[in-house]
Specification:
Elements (H helix, E strand, L loop, with lengths): L2 H8 L4 H13 L5 H12 L4 H9 L2 H7 L13 H6 L6 H13 L6 E2 L9 H14 L1 H6 L6 H9 L1 E2 L2 H8 L5 E3 L4 E3 L18 E3 L3 E3 L5 E5 L1 E5 L5 E2 L9 H7 L24 H8 L9
Parallel strand pairs: 2-9
Antiparallel strand pairs: 1-5, 3-6, 4-5, 7-8
Amino acid sequence: MSILQHLMSLLQKDQQLFIREVYRELLNRVPNVMELNQHSQLLSLGSSKLEIIKNVLMSNEALTLYKVPLHTVNGVNRTIADIIRTFFNKDIYTFVKNCYKEIMGLHQMAIDIQKHQFLTDGQQRIKFIMTLIERKNLLRNNFSRPGVRGASQRFYDRYYTTAWQWINETKLLDHFNSLKQEKMFQGNPPKTIDSSIVFDHGDKMVTQPFITIIPGGKYIGANHGVVLTPDGKIVKDLSHEMFDKYNMQYTGGYNPTTSYLPGNIVVLHSYFSYNYFHWLFDVVSRLDYIKT
């Protein structure tokens, strides 16, 4: 399970069990009576579960624990703390890549190293982890408040964070094709007559492109939308949509009528793919991949 999946499970637990599990997941220990009572009172006074997680995650005890590397992790009993310790002390690129994979569910993405140069000490790294958790609308909107347990479970039941997660669960390993190796893209400042325009030309790690074959899959949307597996789950890293329009509708119970198209259908959409710039650079540039 990823950090995201651990959190999704954690935030569905009732108050007392939730607090105990927060300490077990983030600190690898059980809370004492004082800690249990303190956090129970905070929840009773209206604090969200996410705020409790933040308090524990950003504690000095957590920082001290995460600074101790963990090279091997028990796949069955591993906690969030165990996962963090496997990459917390790595170089900036490896740390950021694992954060996005474990928390945001993004396995394939370009990482701008220069934008993350501030992640040199443990405090900044824990803040970065917490920032990503807070950025997940899934956690903030569905889990932080009482009374939405059913909605959050419905979302979890209809959601794959990555195509690789679906491949692993279905054992269809031959349906996932890696095309090229990831590599560092060396960015150079562009030539321009307007020096006031600041371009982001820093070095970026271009992640490995891939093709996923989903027999009986569905695509919902126009210009941008979501990719669904045959069992009706959204594949997030294949679903490029603005403002999570179809994502939120579908997980909320929206299930539109679809049309069957015979043969093989290729989905090469991207954000703003109806825009000429994005169509040219994000869609047309990938046409060569489907020749393989």
